[in-house]
User: Which sequence fits this backbone?
């Protein structure tokens, strides 16, 4: 598909072809001082997550009541069943508690809901119900926030402003509106007092989290204190929409530099951006799950997935900036096949050390360099700096032929997973923010393949991506990590091993992968349930 790029601000970013206004960073006043603001916001995180002797007592009492009672009931009931029943019961009670406790906890639940593969399936499924269950603020409240941020009545800026929001999330809600100058826009309005509430809740979470270590199954590698720290790192920048608007410009610039014109980023307004208000260009298109609509319009859905994967990987590994919250609600596919990316509250920004680590992680995975991959994980902060990589390889049996998990019994699968998790925790493994966002996006793209390109050969696509990187970034790869174009060979042995497949296994479609996952899921349930425990006890 060829994309026409008229002379405008498209040299600055992957914006729409028909601009409602032009982006000019040099004259955009809300950008002044954002580097200092971002630094101050990040510096605040250690203080917010430090466990104080005395937390905010009122909020602590409310939190303890709404969390403690459900957990106590779970401990006395579902916990005794073990396995999936226990996890489902706890997840259901935690989700209800989050909805009662309000926006901060709902936001935490929404982040967990996007963490398939990072958190237990039952927890992810339950918290997905939080995505569309945040009550909207009353119109009078919205109107007051907008007027306060603009410093004038709403009618002096907008000719129309829909009172019913397009979407209501935990931090803000989004309304369709039209400027007095005639441009259709989307207006993101922050909930009043949310910044104060978030900071109070973070202090309470930080006080409670250490006492939950080892007591409830939240996640394998994100223990409660680490999860709170990760959450604080994620949510604090969302509380100032000027930072989000800057994220929009940076992601658009990176995609343009990479020549990724299959993406469209909405333009933030040059003047109507404040801490609690963000006016941006209104975009539209097919919902990401409207596969039939896309195909009827002639959109090549396989191309949508392929360019999405490459654009995401390039942004992270070549420029160190990427959209950090890919999910169906943040994407539109336009009739010409381009993908509109929305909502930049969560954006991954990598230091140079971490960017190079991600680059080495990618190249290590496609060349089967196990030690190189583990070294990259150390630089990312997922493993401590003094980790004995050889010992990790031995303990996790990474130097042995893969075991096909579909050939194991439920008991054997559960035992294998417990052994791996125990070993990783013993080495001090954790989930840093950047790695969590990266994996979360990869999980979303994995699901996108399921709906948009189920017959895609996964191994073939990985090989194509490797070729793309060496062809388009060969000189940079040689300079930064010593990979000489044409001087390395794609070896998917390690990738295949991660699926439990032998090196000579030829192809794997998503449909094949889904079938394997269902088998594993079924056997895990069998191995973790009461029957599995009875069989294990019977062996002693």
Assistant:
């Amino acid at each position: 598909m060829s994309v026409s790029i008229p002379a405008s601000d498209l040299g600055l970013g992957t914006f729409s072809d028909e601009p409602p206004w032009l982006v000019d960073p040099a004259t955009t006043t809300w950008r002044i001082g954002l580097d200092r603001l971002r630094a101050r916001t990040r510096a605040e995180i250690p203080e917010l997550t430090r466990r104080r002797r005395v937390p905010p007592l009122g909020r602590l009492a409310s939190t303890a009541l709404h969390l403690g009672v459900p957990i106590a009931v779970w401990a006395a009931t579902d916990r005794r069943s073990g396995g999936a029943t226990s996890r489902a019961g706890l997840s259901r009670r935690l989700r209800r508690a989050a909805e009662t406790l309000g926006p901060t906890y709902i936001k935490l639940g929404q982040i967990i809901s996007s963490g398939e593969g990072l958190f237990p399936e039952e927890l992810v499924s339950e918290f997905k119900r939080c995505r569309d269950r945040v009550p909207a603020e009353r119109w009078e409240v919205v109107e007051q926030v907008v007027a306060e941020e603009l410093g004038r009545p709403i009618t002096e800026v907008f000719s129309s402003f829909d009172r019913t929001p397009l979407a209501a999330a935990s931090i803000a809600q989004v309304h369709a509106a039209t400027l007095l100058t005639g441009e259709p826009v989307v207006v993101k309005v922050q909930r009043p007092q949310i910044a104060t509430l978030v900071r109070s809740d973070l202090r309470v979470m930080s006080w409670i989290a250490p006492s939950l270590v080892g007591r409830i199954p939240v996640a394998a590698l994100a223990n409660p204190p680490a999860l709170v720290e990760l959450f604080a790192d994620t949510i604090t920048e969302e509380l100032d929409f000027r930072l989000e608007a800057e994220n929009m410009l940076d992601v658009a610039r990176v995609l343009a530099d990479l020549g990724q014109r299959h993406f469209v980023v909405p333009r933030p307004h040059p003047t109507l951006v404040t801490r609690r208000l963000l006016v941006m260009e209104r975009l539209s298109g097919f919902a990401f799950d409207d596969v039939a609509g896309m195909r009827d319009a002639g959109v090549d859905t396989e191309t949508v997935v392929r360019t999405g994967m490459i654009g995401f990987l390039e942004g992270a590994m070549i420029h160190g900036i990427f959209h950090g919250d890919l999910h169906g609600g943040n994407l539109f596919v336009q009739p010409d096949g381009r993908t509109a990316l929305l909502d930049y509250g969560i954006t991954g920004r990598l230091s140079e050390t971490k960017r190079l680590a991600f680059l080495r992680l990618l190249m290590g995975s496609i060349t089967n360099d196990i030690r190189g991959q583990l070294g990259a994980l150390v630089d990312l902060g997922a493993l401590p700096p003094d980790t004995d990589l050889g010992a990790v390889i031995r303990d996790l049996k990474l130097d042995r032929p893969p075991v096909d998990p579909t050939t194991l019994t439920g008991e054997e699968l559960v035992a294998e997973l417990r052994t791996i998790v125990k070993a990783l925790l013993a080495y001090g493994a954790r989930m840093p923010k950047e790695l969590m966002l990266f994996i979360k996006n990869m999980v979303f793209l994995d699901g996108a393949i399921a709906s948009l390109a189920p017959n895609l050969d996964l191994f073939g696509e990985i090989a194509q991506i490797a070729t793309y990187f060496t062809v388009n970034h060969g000189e940079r790869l040689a300079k930064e990590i010593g990979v000489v174009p044409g001087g390395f060979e794609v070896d998917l042995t390690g990738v295949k091993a991660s699926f439990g497949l032998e090196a000579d296994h030829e192809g794997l479609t998503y449909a094949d992968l889904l079938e394997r996952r269902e088998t594993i899921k079924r056997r895990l349930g069998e191995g973790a349930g009461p029957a599995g425990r009875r069989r294990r006890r019977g062996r002693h």
Summary: The first strand starts at residue 158 and ends at 161. The chain is about 50% helix and 10% strand. The longest helix spans residues 458-481. Residues 42-134+205-238 form one domain.
